[in-house]
Design a protein that fits this description.
By secondary structure, this protein is α/β, with parallel strands linked by helices. The protein is built from eight helices and seven strands; from the N terminus they run H-H-H-H-E-E-E-E-E-E-H-E-H-H-H. It has a five-stranded mixed β-sheet with strand order 3-4-7-5-6, with helices on one face. A two-stranded antiparallel ribbon has the order 1-2. A hairpin with a 5-residue loop joins strand 1 and strand 2. The radius of gyration is 22 Å and the shape is elongated.
Length: 277
Amino acid sequence: MGAVHGVYLKYVGLSALSYAGYAYLTANGSGPLSSGTRSLSEASDSPMPLWRLVSAAVLGYSALLNGTIAILFKLERGMSLLGKDPNTGQIPTWSYILFFPFHLPTLLYTHIHTRFSSMKIRTASGETRREAVPVASEVQPGWWVGGWYANELDKDWAGVIDLTVEFPERCINRTQTYLSLPTWDGVPASPEQLEKAANFAVEARKKGDVLIHCAHGRGRSTTVMCAALVKAGIFDNWDEALEKGIKLGRPVCKLNRLMRKALTAWQAEYIDGKKGQ
């Protein structure tokens, strides 16, 4: 969800909590877990109330679904599972129905995280204060890093790069061009995808401002922005782009080990490897 490191653990936790609720509801009688558990199909002296049966089924499904998604996070696979349209960025209704134990907590967490997150700002006098994290930040002239709520800027874009697999694109009607590179939260784009995104961003920037966003504008979007700023010739390498070009304008931006590894591989193949050619 929002954190860059160990994001999959949130879904592990959600799966575990769901299973705990399932185990409680399917316990014999209405007592605590110590009284033993049973399957939904197991016969008992007194039939399980309908509300309890339905609740247990939902929690059991949530445990299975979120556990599976946590595994997919670690394997960096299954990005097409939720059915997001690569052209429009929209998620179909069937996905919300079928995968509601994933979608609902994700939407709720992202809303809360966006509305209540803050970041530390250093003033000109050297003092520090905390401010709300903006939905998107202009880290270099015309280059914006943001989250899913970036549409609240009410701004037109020359290009939008969307890194989310879990959310529908909300700027699709306000952008000239759109590129969807769906990745699980905390999982970076591949070096090949970074090159594709960087070239897309550079071309779009010729026509106006570019938005690169993920869920919260911290990790996935920052990874692509690093590549874009290097490809645009603003910085020589991704580390310089991160420290001097992005974090000064959006201090919450950070990269995990996988993101740094992807950028290093991208830099070696597509930038350093082509010098002198």
